[in-house]
Amino acid sequence: MLAALSLALVLQEPMKVTIPGSNVSFSMVRIPDNKGPKIWFATTEVTWDVYDLFAYRLDMSKEDQARGVDVESRPSKPYGAPDRGFGHYGYAALGMTDNAADQFCKWLSKKTGKKFRLPTELEWEHAARAGATELPNPLGDYAWFWDNAEDQAQPVGKLKPNKWGLYDMLGNVTEWAIDAKGKAVTCGGSYLDKKVDFTTRAYYDPKWQEADAHVPKSKWWLSDGPFVGMRVVCED
Questions:
Q1: Pick from 71, 72, 91: nearest CA to 81
Q2: How, if at all, do strands 115-117 and 201-202 pair?
């Protein structure tokens, strides 16, 4: 009885994170029964609303931008429209490399004073399942994939959340995580996949930057990876 009450309180009290110096915020929920550190998971994938502050240095003064402050730890100019015309505010940020995702977490940690990072692969699957052993049914009520996404990323948080209040853990954009060997891997599948599952995984493929004519390839953007996004976790 006490455990059930404790779990209910966790799910009823999301944490709101506001980026200092802006009116941009996002919500997180505490993940119960995690065998590792106590963590909070963002309820949605990182949206352009948040990622723009980092990518375009919108949190900095014009003077600091002109001086090139922090320029080496911020993304370079993206390839064309970074949202690929799918939609911007309220949509998942996409097309970032794992390096960009990691630098975003470091920036977010510095801005807020909290410890943000990418989830581990095990943490991601634990949160995605939310105690379930089977996929939600009907899947289209919970995930944007080949059958219902119309070949593009969709606004976050429009479908049903899982039992722990997390939206779009399956489909929409596949999300960067870190595997047991410390290597970046994407989880959950995307709007392009005919099948998405808790165990769907994809490692970086050179084809994700096939149209990038630079040598070496950009360490920030995936020219051919508009299906890749991210979600952050926060440690207590």
A1: 91
A2: unpaired
Q: How far apart are CA 175 and CA 114, in angstroms?
A: 21
What are the DSSP calls for 74-142, one per residue? S----SS-TTTTS--TTBB---B-HHHHHHHHHHHHHHHSSEEEPPBHHHHHHHHHTT-SS--SSGGGT
pTM of the predicted structure, to 2 decimals: 0.91
* Residue range 85-137, pLDDT digits in tens: 999 999 999 999 999 999 999 999 999 999 999 999 999 999 999 999 999 99
What the block records as the tokens of 55 is: 């990518």
Identify the sign of the CA torsion 64, 65, 68, 69.
Answer: positive
Residue 47's CATH number:
3.90.1580.10
- The pair of three-digit structure tokens given for residue 125, joined into one six-digit string: 């699957």
Report, as an integer, the average pLDDT of 159-167.
Answer: 98
* Burial (CB count <10 Å: 0-12, 13-18, 19+), residue 161: middle
> How are beta strands 174-178 and 228-229 bridged, if at all?
parallel
Give the chain's length.
236
Where would I find the beta strands (DSSP E) of the chain? Answer: 15-18, 25-30, 39-42, 115-117, 174-178, 184-187, 201-202, 228-229, 233-235
Q: Structural domain tally of the chain?
A: 1
Q: Which run of H or E residues covers position 209?
A: none
Range of the domain at 34: 2-235
Nearest to 97 by CA among 235, 13, 208: 208
